[in-house]
Write a structure and sequence with these properties.
Layout lengths: L2 E7 L3 E8 L5 E8 H4 L19 E2 L1 H17 L7 E8 L4 E4 L15 H5 L8 E2 L7 H10 L3 H6 L14 H8 L13 E4 H13 L15
Parallel strand pairs: 1-5
Antiparallel strand pairs: 1-2, 2-3, 4-7, 6-8
Length: 222
């Protein structure tokens, strides 16, 4: 049997859906609630508490550890992850992860070592702003104005809402959070990933040769 694995990283949980490629039927589905299964991240609603209501950040290691848990849950249910031939990630649109090096330069994952522990030293910033963050709205307004206004942004396909997580360049984030400790690591940032893309890229690397043109010798899914 050939299967496809879908990953949905939402604000409060990570869900996995395995589909039989021949019949289109769901083989298995599992979900990991961050607050319930990963209480040590202190994010019962999927994000860290902060005195400034405009700041909504999550620990990206929580997403990676949730990936490990959901794959373990599938294996415990008797799923043969060796049948997976394609992986797709979807989820919160604007979550961003700051890395000290590109995922393409990571190399091999170490079998037997928790994946989140291997990702930890790659982070140049410990937390990731998510879609709920609005701490750089003023800076985003400045960018939109310099680009010709909201109408111009819409015309070229760039939406500028009140809440913009990517918040343009990291310099904007450093400007807003200077003195609050949140700018730490931005100067070392070499790669910026969407939260969902990070999860899918890690999983693709672990999946081996099938459907992954950037194959690495990696920890097998099975």
């Amino acid at each position: 049997m050939t299967t496809f694995l879908g990953l949905d990283s939402s604000t409060q949980s990570l869900s996995a859906l395995l589909i039989d490629a021949d019949t289109g039927k769901v083989v298995a589905d599992r979900s990991v609630n961050f607050g319930e299964r990963l209480p040590h991240y202190k994010s019962p609603k999927g994000f860290l508490a902060h005195p400034d209501e405009a700041v909504k950040h999550s620990d990206p290691l929580m997403w990676v550890e949730a990936l490990e848990l959901v794959l373990d849950d599938l294996r415990a249910a008797g799923v043969d992850l060796g049948t997976v031939r394609g992986i797709s990630g979807a989820g919160q649109q604007h979550g961003s992860v700051y890395l000290g090096k590109s995922m393409d330069k990571v190399g091999d994952w170490a079998p037997g070592t928790p994946l989140h522990e291997q990702v930890r030293p790659l982070l140049s910033r410990k937390t990731s702003p998510i879609w709920m963050d609005s701490s750089t709205s003023a800076e985003c307004a400045e960018i939109a104005k310099a680009a010709g206004g909201d109408e111009r942004c819409r015309h070229v396909g760039v939406a500028r809402g009140r809440r913009m997580v990517q918040s343009g360049p990291p310099a904007c984030i450093a400007r807003v959070h200077r003195g609050a400790g949140l700018e730490q690591g931005l100067g070392r940032c070499q790669s910026l990933e969407l939260g969902t893309e990070l999860t899918a890229r890690i999983d693709r690397a672990r999946a081996g040769p099938h459907g992954n043109h950037e194959r690495r010798e990696a920890v097998p899914l099975r």
